[in-house]
Amino acid sequence: MSFKPLNTAEYPQLLAEKVNTVVASFADLALPTAEIYPSAPEHYRLRAEFRIWHEDGSFFYAMFDPRDPKAPIRIDHFPTASETICTLMTPLRLALGEHSALNKRLFQIEFLSTLSGDMLVTLIYHRRLDDEWQLAAQAIAEQFNIQIIGRSKKQKIVLDRDYVLEQLPVDGKHYAYHQYEGGFTQPNGKVNAKMVSWAKARCGQNPDTDLLELYCGNGNFTIPLATHFRRVLATEISKTSVKAAHENFAMNTVSNALVLRMSSEELTSALNKERSFRRLHGVDLDSYAISTVLVDPPRAGLDAASREFIAGFNNIIYISCNPETLRRDLEILTKSHHVNDFALFDQFPYTHHMECGVFLTKQG
């Protein structure tokens, strides 16, 4: 069985139906008319992963239907993936097939690409990797000008670097990001650029006030928004993302942003003077004059304490990957704030998932 190509002609209708469903779920909150930011209908996903299925002395990329999880679906072309990934898939498979050191007990392949063309490939095995593997993998990396990581149980071999370098175009400027293997990155780069631009447009110029950002990741929003404020205080719990954020601040010469490795709940508690943390040693929280807060929480949305805390600020930029939890949070936030802008970003075409953006300002 082969992967069925996308019918891109269906995308406008599918998007319209999804938009109608999401907008209807907020109907009783009387939100402004939603701004719609569609995706490219194909080659929009910068990440892809495939199982490797060995059969008759060869192997192919495979995916599985949850309704029949034991039957592999052969993938020869994957049009949802970036053109960089699609162009590499077949030549890489053929090249790996020529080296037993590279294809023996190969279990999975993961691709991480960028809008700027950088590529990292992770090869995952059910065996320990040796010097022969490393020499063969190095030759493949040089042949295709890609980064390669080899993984097996309790083993990780990085041939050169374990990240890709993205150059994200936002409002005529390019922002540089290290995006690490295994770290969170936005999967749809072009839509992500639209999200960042939308958030920037809600910031204005605030040279005397500061931005608080919860769930900052690798600095995806932090870096472009930092120029709008005196300082940025950000929080993130992922060690990999915090490391990337520090590197990305340096690459973009952002000197007015501080990222703390803390959960949003912990920072909320610290700012409310309910608890003290060693991680805040030397950080003068009282020196921040926060006027705007940006939140980009996981699918669970905001916890009750964080939701109550951000309601104390004049401006809230809320980026959500789950309309259901966004609606729950807005039911409370709209008691103190007015929704000025509402946007829908189609990060995941042909699925029911929708990314949302809401800009709220304090009433009165």
TrEMBL record:
<dbReference type="InterPro" id="IPR010280">
    <property type="entry name" value="U5_MeTrfase_fam"/>
</dbReference>
<dbReference type="InterPro" id="IPR030391">
    <property type="entry name" value="MeTrfase_TrmA_CS"/>
</dbReference>
<dbReference type="InterPro" id="IPR029063">
    <property type="entry name" value="SAM-dependent_MTases_sf"/>
</dbReference>
<keyword id="KW-0949">S-adenosyl-L-methionine</keyword>
<protein>
    <recommendedName>
        <fullName>tRNA/tmRNA (uracil-C(5))-methyltransferase</fullName>
        <ecNumber>2.1.1.35</ecNumber>
    </recommendedName>
</protein>
<dbReference type="GO" id="GO:0030697">
    <property type="term" value="F:tRNA (uracil(54)-C5)-methyltransferase activity, S-adenosyl methionine-dependent"/>
</dbReference>
<keyword id="KW-0489">Methyltransferase</keyword>
<dbReference type="Pfam" id="PF05958">
    <property type="entry name" value="tRNA_U5-meth_tr"/>
</dbReference>
<dbReference type="InterPro" id="IPR011869">
    <property type="entry name" value="TrmA_MeTrfase"/>
</dbReference>
<keyword id="KW-0819">tRNA processing</keyword>
<feature type="active site">
    <location>
        <position position="321"/>
    </location>
</feature>
<dbReference type="GO" id="GO:0032259">
    <property type="term" value="P:methylation"/>
</dbReference>
<feature type="binding site">
    <location>
        <position position="215"/>
    </location>
    <ligand>
        <name>S-adenosyl-L-methionine</name>
    </ligand>
</feature>
<comment type="similarity">
    <text>Belongs to the class I-like SAM-binding methyltransferase superfamily. RNA M5U methyltransferase family. TrmA subfamily.</text>
</comment>
<feature type="binding site">
    <location>
        <position position="236"/>
    </location>
    <ligand>
        <name>S-adenosyl-L-methionine</name>
    </ligand>
</feature>
<comment type="function">
    <text>Dual-specificity methyltransferase that catalyzes the formation of 5-methyluridine at position 54 (m5U54) in all tRNAs, and that of position 341 (m5U341) in tmRNA (transfer-mRNA).</text>
</comment>
<feature type="active site" description="Proton acceptor">
    <location>
        <position position="355"/>
    </location>
</feature>
<feature type="binding site">
    <location>
        <position position="296"/>
    </location>
    <ligand>
        <name>S-adenosyl-L-methionine</name>
    </ligand>
</feature>
<feature type="binding site">
    <location>
        <position position="186"/>
    </location>
    <ligand>
        <name>S-adenosyl-L-methionine</name>
    </ligand>
</feature>
<dbReference type="InterPro" id="IPR030390">
    <property type="entry name" value="MeTrfase_TrmA_AS"/>
</dbReference>
<feature type="binding site">
    <location>
        <position position="220"/>
    </location>
    <ligand>
        <name>S-adenosyl-L-methionine</name>
    </ligand>
</feature>
<keyword id="KW-0808">Transferase</keyword>
<feature type="active site" description="Nucleophile">
    <location>
        <position position="321"/>
    </location>
</feature>
